[in-house]
Design goal:
single chain; globular; 2 domains; 6-stranded antiparallel beta sheet; alpha+beta; Beta-Lactamase; 48% helix; 19% strand; 9 strands; Arc Repressor Mutant, subunit A
Length: 268
Amino acid sequence: MSAPAESSSHDNDRYNVPALERGLRLLACFGPAQPVWNAPDLARALALPRSTVFRMLTTLESMGYLQRVGADYRLGLAVLRLGYDYLSTQPLAVLAEPVLQSLCDALGFATNLALLDGTEVVYVCRIAPPGAFQGAVRAGSRLPAHATVLGRALLQDMGLDELLAIFGGEALQRFSAATPCDLDALLQLLRQDRERGYAVGEGFYEAGVSSVAVPVRDERGRIVAGLGLAIPFTEIASERTSQWAQRLGEAARLLSDHLRAQHPDVPR
């Protein structure tokens, strides 16, 4: 009974393209832990000849998947385009779009949905009203989780041990006067967010833009996404913040219901 499976394995090997496999393995080396590589280090990590790695790097650079600065390489914009194409076709983005559109229509502000990826938030869906201030965020954008209100919504349930596992014990980069500079300051903000029921910040990452965000939870209560509003500073009114947060909470619960009903296997 094992012969068909063995045959299938041999067939798969027969159709593999070694050069393509090596190129994808090379791209997979780039990530938050090591975003910059040089050719000798990649050759050692992949156990490949330097000449082979150099040809792969040159090809990927010419296609925009890598960019070179001196002797170093980092991911290029073509990878970002692929990432955006992937995100835009995922169940979460598809399910979230009508929810975000309804929220945008009702409140008149840009709405965002983001996931946590290591120390960063990845924006998977964004809906903005016509003529609205766009800011620095697009679908596919990656921003530091500790420095964004949506990131705080995604980190809201974490304690010090979990944060240490993600960020380590190093100081946190500051992007504005409001950005926490270490994990103690971040923990204090997360406690306030939990007590309040939502995260809020004025110019927390980007000057002139304020945000309100809430977590989206699965059937076990785990945070799987963050849902937020981007509000120009000219529209901020403290007495309306709780109303915006209430609407966000309702939308987050609706999205949670959709996820459970239609896609219980959506990646967490």
